[in-house]
Design a protein that fits this description.
Blueprint lengths: L1 H6 L5 H12 L5 H6 L9 H10 L11 H4 L8 H8 L3
Length: about 90
């Protein structure tokens, strides 16, 4: 049933793409959204929130990609990623 829906050309490609992303557990990152013109900056939104909370500059943010979010290099996820790595 899912394959039939995804391959049906009568259904808008945006809807088929969103379904594919939902099934894959994949969410669009700022890097991807910037690429398709939906955002102005590819900078990590999580890093921006942390830096603003500390009163630091938000210049030079790393691009928000899945690799960045899942690494300790992401200031917004560093504690969570480290805890998961140590199985805490």
């Amino acid at each position: 049933m899912l394959g039939k829906y995804v391959s049906d050309k009568k259904i808008l490609w945006q809807r088929r793409r969103r379904l594919g992303m939902a099934v894959a557990g994949n969410t669009p990152t700022a890097s991807f959204l910037t690429k398709i013109g939906k955002m102005q900056s590819a900078g990590s939104r999580l890093c921006r929130i942390v830096r603003e909370a500390r009163g630091e500059s938000t210049d030079g943010l790393a691009d928000e990609t899945h690799g960045h979010i899942n690494s300790a290099g992401c200031e917004g996820m560093a504690t969570t990623v480290t805890a998961a790595h140590h199985s805490i």
